[in-house]
Specification:
globular; 2-enoyl-CoA Hydratase, Chain A, domain 1; 2 domains; 7-stranded mixed β-sheet; two-stranded antiparallel ribbon; 9 strands; 10 helices; alpha/beta; 280 residues
């Protein structure tokens, strides 16, 4: 039993005193590459071995884009109501409260203004962890108010989309946000204030059918899922197999719906270059 007690190895720590490594120190990509989370964060949450873009939220995008992570958040305390008294497996109001506690977010989008490489910019960024990044009344209202700020101050507007689509618990109230945000973006266009739409994984449903595809420049991260209906629904509807890579950002770019795909590590510098060109 010497091997079990590990005396021959010079190990004196008993099994009871053995401590496991803390969770969350390492990240494994779908390709099997392993990277320390600290290195991953320093690399804009992109694995350097295979360029896999880890899904991140508004906190991380704000850190990447705003100079020194300094920004002023717009309407931070706005929360969803329950206009329809909706209930499925649980009341919608309870679902909202639980999600707020779990994610420490008040809804599926955060909006803020600050500087990006010295340029003033307004950024709206969606969080998929909040009920699948679904678009409800609060999402539409916060985006509309962020656009109003851009209009008033003549500041470029960047929308970072990451969503499963409209929020079914708000039914028609959710679908109205498609028209509402699209109308606001039309005002931005009339005022010649630049609007850049960045689509990340995934961008689907009513978000794709409205503000995500209305940018002066529509851009995306590599291998992001972009589409309206899901592949299974489309396959069953048309009765045919879908092309390889269907609804990936590369496929969407090839078919003319994107202007370019951008690596997250180059996002800040590329956006700055683009806005400087527009300003000139």
């Amino acid at each position: 039993m010497a091997w079990f007690k590990r005396k021959d190895k010079g190990i004196k720590t008993s099994t009871a005193e053995k401590k496991d490594a803390p969770d969350g120190l390492w990240f494994k990509t779908p390709n099997g590459n392993i990277i320390h989370t600290r290195e991953l964060k320093n690399n804009a949450f992109v694995c350097p071995d295979d360029d896999f873009h880890v899904k991140i939220g508004s906190k991380e995008y704000f850190e990447i884009l705003f100079d020194n992570n300094k920004f002023t958040e717009l309407d931070p305390n706005m929360k969803s109501g329950d206009p329809l008294n909706f209930s499925d497996t649980k009341p919608y109001s309870s679902r909202i409260e639980e999600t707020i506690k779990k994610t420490e977010l008040n809804d599926a989008v955060r909006t803020a203004h600050g500087k990006m490489n010295g340029l003033e910019i307004v950024i709206a960024c969606m969080d998929f962890n909040f009920i699948g990044g679904s678009m409800g009344s609060v999402v539409g209202e916060k985006i509309a108010r962020a656009i109003d700020y851009s209009l008033k101050h003549k500041v470029p507007f960047l929308m970072i989309s990451k969503s499963g689509g409209a929020r079914m618990m708000e039914a028609g109230f959710s679908l109205m946000q498609m028209a509402k945000t699209s109308a606001k973006l039309a005002l931005l266009d009339q005022a010649a204030v630049p609007y850049i739409s960045l689509m990340t994984d995934p961008t689907t449903g009513g978000v794709t059918a409205s503000y995500a595809m209305l940018g002066d420049f529509n851009i995306a991260e590599p291998e992001a899922l972009i589409g309206f209906a899901g592949p299974r629904v489309i396959r069953e509807t048309i009765g045919k197999d879908l092309p390889k890579g269907f609804q990936s950002s590369e496929f969407v770019l090839e078919h003319g719906f994107l202007d370019f795909i951008i690596d997250r590590r180059q996002l800040k510098s590329r956006l700055t270059t683009l806005l400087n060109l527009l300003n000139n």
